[in-house]
Amino acid sequence: WGLQVLVVDMTVTGEGQPLKDALQQKPQLVWIETPANPTWDVTDIARVASLAHAAGALVAVDSTPATPVHTQPITLGADIVMHSATKYLNGHSDVLAGALVASEEMAGSERWGKIREIRKSNGMMPGTMDAWLLQRGMRTL
For the chain, where are the E strands, in sequence order? Predict the structure, then answer.
């Protein structure tokens, strides 16, 4: 795939120097996990999104522990948000599911079209029972 990964502590406040240094390499994507597992460190999504977008990078956020009830990363500048629905959205760990959500701008992009095509061709849709189980869990979210 030719990917390079650079791990950066984005919880540093103030100047955010580690992130600014990393952005000098012109990444295509900045991935945030907040709150981070297992430390529960919180990243300022809006600040990271602002810096990343200025460098030409997309911002993706794994917001699994926060759920949409507590954090809405797209309103803070994220382009893509991921949720492992198996965990907090379902709450019962009896279904395998997940969700990718795109900002309006991202949803109209060629990249998002490629993501949708992969999902379509690989059959990444929950079955009816899994969908029901997920809905059951979300009722008490």
Answer: 29-33, 58-62, 80-83, 99-102
Measure the CA–CA gap between 106 and 103, rounded to whole angstroms.
5
Residue 15: pLDDT band by 50, 70, 90 thresholds?
Answer: low
Cα dihedral 19, 25, 29, 30, rounded to 10, equals -10
Mean pLDDT to the nearest integer, 80-103:
90
**DSSP assigned state of 76:** G
CA distance 126 to 129: 8
CA-CA-CA-CA torsion sign (61, 127, 69, 74)? positive
pLDDT for residue 123 is more than 70: yes
83 in helix, strand or coil? strand
Instruction: Give this prediction's pTM.
Output: 0.88
Place of tokens 């079955």: 127
